[in-house]
Design a protein that fits this description.
single chain, about 270 residues, alpha+beta, Alpha-Beta Plaits, 9 helices, 8 strands, EthD domain-containing protein, Dimeric_a/b-barrel
Length: about 270
């Protein structure tokens, strides 16, 4: 089990999407690179969202829309999802920093240089974002990237919240232990290259922004577009949505579909 830190950003209204996802994102990546040693040599990349007019984004969003998931919930005799979400959680950019082990992440971030690096990143983001979330997670690579495969170009991230009255730990156990194998069994139909489940960790004193994050990585946007017209893919996606209504509050969850950019690999430990 590896450790991942996700930093999710919603751009400030004073910045255009082009400025935020272009010059600001490049400046941000350079800042992370300068602090790489202090952060414990993590791997790093950015997920920059597609246009919200993108047919891929809107098709996936529609499949998790309130009318559809509410209908499925009612057919299953379950509580409908929340009707009102948080528009600030329509993330524009997500940064992913990854360490081989949770202990390495905790040691790096608890150190004085690591703490100073996190503070520098937070200060840099404050002027350019209206809202952000810092998610410390433990990562299970349910379907890891096959040896020799090239790094994925496109990613779908689902930031998940448990469906009331389900407790967070119950939701995580159901999602990882039961739903994860279902997603893995549908890899051929869905066309993804890798699938990871990230359990967000916290306690009663430090409530988390989300309960978990599902990460589906694709070879490219072409694969995702092809899925929009393949009946096999659509049926597989419907099976997932049907199952998700048992534990997931889609109304309070968040979605980002984007391209992977600014990869930075960490140096080997030691």
């Amino acid at each position: 089990m590896s450790a991942t830190l996700l930093i999710c950003h919603r751009r400030a209204r004073s910045l255009s999407a082009g400025d935020f996802l272009g010059p600001w994102a490049e400046e941000r990546a350079a800042l992370v690179a300068r602090h790489q040693a202090a952060l414990g040599h993590p791997d790093y990349h950015q997920i920059r969202r597609l246009s919200r007019l993108s047919i891929v984004y809107n098709a996936v969003r529609l499949s998790r829309s309130w009318p559809l998931t509410a209908l499925i919930s009612l057919l299953r005799g379950r509580r409908p999802p929340s009707l009102i979400g948080n528009r600030d959680e329509r993330w524009d950019l997500v940064e992913q920093l990854q360490w081989p082990e949770p202990a390495q992440r905790e040691a790096a971030l608890a150190s004085e240089p690591g703490g100073a690096a996190l503070q520098a990143l937070a200060q840099h983001a404050d002027a350019a974002t209206r809202h952000h979330a810092l998610l410390s997670t433990e990562r299970v690579d349910t379907m890891p990237l096959a040896p020799g495969e090239t790094a994925p170009d496109a990613v779908a991230l689902f930031c998940l919240r448990a469906k009331p009255p389900m407790e967070r730990e119950h939701m995580l156990a159901d999602w990882i232990g039961r739903h994860g194998p279902l997603v893995a069994s549908l890899q051929g139909a869905l066309g993804y290259a890798a699938y990871a489940q990230l359990a967000v960790r916290g306690n009663d004193d430090t409530p988390t922004a989300f309960d978990g994050v599902a990460l589906l990585a694709y070879p490219g946007l072409g694969t995702m577009r092809l899925g929009l017209i393949r009946p096999r893919t659509q049926l597989a996606n419907l099976r997932l949505v049907w199952d998700e209504t048992a534990f997931l509050d889609t109304g309070r969850s968040a979605l980002i579909i984007g391209r992977v950019a600014r990869r930075l690999s960490g140096a080997p430990p030691g």
